[in-house]
């Protein structure tokens, strides 16, 4: 329990740091974002809009501390300001519209990647010296490949050349969103290539990580003991070795989540997938600072929650942390 | 073997960045009438939509991509050394604060943070992009170095230096740091790859300096120039391949070093793993 309380404290602190970072970055950077924007629009902004933008940023002549308190107050009420790109839509609405797409895509892809990658790692450690060793160089290569490049190659091969899968958008133009079979099928069909991208690019870390820990675990006395007792090798492999080797893998997985999320931001952009990554790029391209900040905050908090869940899983799987 | 292949790859790309532009002095941005040609004797890797030679771009781009990678890894490593060594050596409240800071930056998603920071940059030059990437790239190194410092700080030579009256900063940077040089080197190399990937991602999004040719900006122009639809694979396959190969080279070096430290991880062995074989220590078996 102490382990969990400590972690919870840490995540609260990190959430506070992300919030504060979000507050400080625009104020530390040279130039006032609103002035920048107005300059970009060559003055074609009516004063009311400028005032609205300043309000959205919480920029005022008040002291930094007052601004900070106002900013925190707004956050607690769930107010992230208004988006400039989609004016007058609230940033929270833009986030609410795009977040489900990302969570669905990244969630499913990460789950697949974790299950397949971990199992492959276990098998490869178990069957060292067989043809499975041939997966190692491939995994090493995939481990270093940029997500968006995998996405480009997949779009090129399966999208434009073979035309097996659509290379952009989240569902077909011909279907109307709703809980119909056509719509769901279209969403799944359109999500195939982006999901494969994320799985391919993130799986290698799991394979390599799991294999290395598993190989070390296989040398432990309790594994040897289990073998000596004459248990089936399947049982030894999964119930004895893999169950223990998976623990460090969960922690490293949680830490690499930020990387997966970053990679999926790039993936969404290649596929013009209407998730939060595409919105982030739109925000940056249009100097839509409230949108940028809101999305960064939401992504950070989502990664923190995912890390917390991984910690929970750790506690469930490792009785030692429960003492 | 792994180390040798890895070092070979790294040497190849280093030479490409250092000597390559001298061998192919043509301006990588120079356009010509020969647009979108596949690989040929004249253009080994074909041309872009505006008739730029892809090979020339790859070679010149290696300087920018690897340059930003190395520059930002240097900044990040200096920061990682400062935070990791100071925290590990002094312990107590100093360590507590620095550890929390490190862990926060470890958990926050790096790329979104880089994108947001780049969004606020008034000018996206090579140096400012390198700094932005370094801001998010130091935490892992700091954590590794802190752990190593903890294991070194009670050793005899450190105690001796302290007993001889050396100041804490002298002990940290002149007694402990030299011992950690191999660890620093490994973490530096890993940071270089991370930074090359980050720079590529940022350029691909059009958020770095698009007036200089880098592997990332090549991919940006390839995607915007419809290279995928036209079928101009020679335009976008080489830059990504270069990034992935550098990463592979580096990973091979790292794995090779790991295997020297932990012989069990090696792959070359008897074809079938006999039952109970793992009970016999590796050294005793040979």
Automatic annotation (TrEMBL), chain A:
What's one Pfam family the UniProt record gives for this protein? BPD_transp_1
InterPro entries registered for this protein in UniProt: MetI-like (IPR000515), MetI-like_sf (IPR035906)
Bilayer disposition of the protein: Multi-pass membrane protein
Q: Which UniProt keywords apply?
A: Membrane, Transmembrane, Transmembrane helix, Transport
Query: Which residues belong to any copy of the ABC transmembrane type-1 domain?
Result: 99-310
Primary site of residence: membrane
Q: Give the UniProt subcellular location, in the record's own words.
A: Cell membrane; Membrane
Protein name per UniProt: Peptide/nickel transport system permease protein
UniProtKB/TrEMBL annotation, chain B:
What does the UniProt entry say about where the protein is found?
Cell membrane
* Name this protein carries in UniProt: Peptide/nickel transport system permease protein
TM spans (from-to): 7-24, 70-90, 97-120, 126-145, 179-198, 234-257
Q: Which organism is it from?
A: Nonomuraea africana
Family statement drawn from the similarity comment of this UniProt entry:
Belongs to the binding-protein-dependent transport system permease family.
Q: Which domain of life is it from?
A: Bacteria
Question: How does the protein associate with the membrane?
Answer: Multi-pass membrane protein
Give UniProt keywords alphabetically: Cell membrane, Membrane, Transmembrane, Transmembrane helix, Transport
Residues forming the ABC transmembrane type-1 domain are 62-254
Cited Gene3D superfamilies: MetI-like
């Amino acid at each position: 329990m102490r382990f969990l309380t400590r972690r919870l404290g840490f995540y609260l602190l990190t959430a506070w740091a992300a919030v504060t970072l979000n507050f400080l970055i625009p104020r530390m950077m040279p130039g006032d974002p609103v002035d920048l924007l107005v300059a970009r629009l060559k003055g074609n902004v009516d004063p009311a809009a400028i005032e609205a933008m300043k309000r959205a940023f919480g920029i005022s002549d008040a002291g930094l501390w007052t601004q900070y308190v106002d900013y925190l107050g707004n956050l607690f009420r769930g107010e992230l300001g208004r988006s400039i790109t989609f004016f007058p839509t609230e940033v929270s609405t833009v986030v609410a519209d795009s977040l489900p797409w990302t969570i669905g895509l990244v969630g499913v892809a990460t789950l697949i990647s974790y299950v397949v990658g971990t199992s492959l790692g276990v098998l490869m450690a178990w069957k060292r010296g067989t043809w499975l060793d041939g997966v190692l160089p491939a995994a090493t290569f995939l481990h270093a490949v940029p997500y968006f490049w995998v996405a480009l190659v997949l779009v090129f091969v399966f999208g434009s050349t073979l035309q097996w899968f659509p290379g952009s958008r989240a569902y077909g133009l011909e279907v109307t969103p709703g809980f119909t079979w056509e719509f769901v099928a279209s969403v799944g069909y359109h999500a195939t290539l982006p999901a494969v991208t994320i799985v391919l690019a993130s799986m290698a870390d799991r394979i390599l990580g799991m294999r290395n820990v598993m190989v070390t675990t296989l040398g432990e006395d309790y594994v040897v003991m289990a073998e000596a007792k004459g248990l089936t090798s399947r049982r030894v492999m999964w119930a004895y070795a893999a169950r223990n080797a998976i623990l460090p893998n969960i922690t490293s997985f949680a830490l690499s989540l930020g990387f997966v999320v970053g990679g999926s931001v790039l993936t969404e952009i290649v596929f013009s997938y209407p998730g939060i990554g595409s919105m982030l790029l739109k925000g940056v391209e249009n100097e839509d600072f409230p949108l940028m900040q809101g999305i960064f905050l939401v992504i950070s908090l989502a990664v923190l929650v995912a890390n917390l869940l991984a910690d929970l899983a750790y506690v469930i799987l490792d009785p030692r942390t429960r003492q | 073997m792994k180390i040798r292949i890895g070092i070979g790859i790294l040497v190849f790309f280093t030479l490409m960045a250092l000597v390559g532009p001298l061998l192919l002095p043509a301006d990588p941005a120079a356009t010509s009438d020969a647009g979108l040609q596949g690989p040929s004797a004249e253009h080994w890797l074909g041309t872009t939509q505006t008739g730029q030679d892809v090979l020339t771009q790859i070679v010149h781009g290696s300087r920018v991509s690897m340059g930003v990678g190395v520059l930002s890894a240097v900044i990040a490593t200096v920061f990682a050394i400062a935070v990791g060594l100071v925290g590990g050596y002094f312990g107590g409240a100093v360590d507590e604060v620095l550890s929390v800071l490190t862990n926060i930056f470890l958990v926050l998603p790096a790329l979104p943070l880089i994108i947001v920071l780049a969004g606020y940059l008034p000018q996206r030059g090579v140096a400012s992009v390198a700094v932005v990437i370094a801001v998010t790239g130091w935490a892992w190194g700091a954590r590794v170095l802190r752990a190593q410092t903890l294991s070194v700080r009670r050793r005899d030579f450190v105690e001796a230096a302290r007993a001889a009256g050396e100041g804490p900063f002298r002990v940290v940077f002149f007694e402990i740091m030299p011992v950690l040089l191999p660890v620093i080197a490994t973490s530096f190399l890993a940071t270089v790859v991370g930074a090359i990937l980050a720079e590529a991602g940022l350029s691909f999004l059009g958020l770095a300096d698009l007036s200089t040719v880098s592997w990332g900006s090549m991919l940006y122009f390839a995607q915007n120039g419809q290279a995928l639809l036209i079928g101009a694979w020679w335009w976008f396959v080489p830059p990504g391949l270069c990034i992935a190969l550098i990463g592979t080279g580096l990973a091979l070096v790292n794995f090779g070093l790991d295997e020297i430290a932990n012989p069990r991880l090696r792959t070359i062995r008897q074809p079938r793993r006999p039952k109970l074989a793992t009970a016999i220590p590796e050294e005793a078996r040979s």
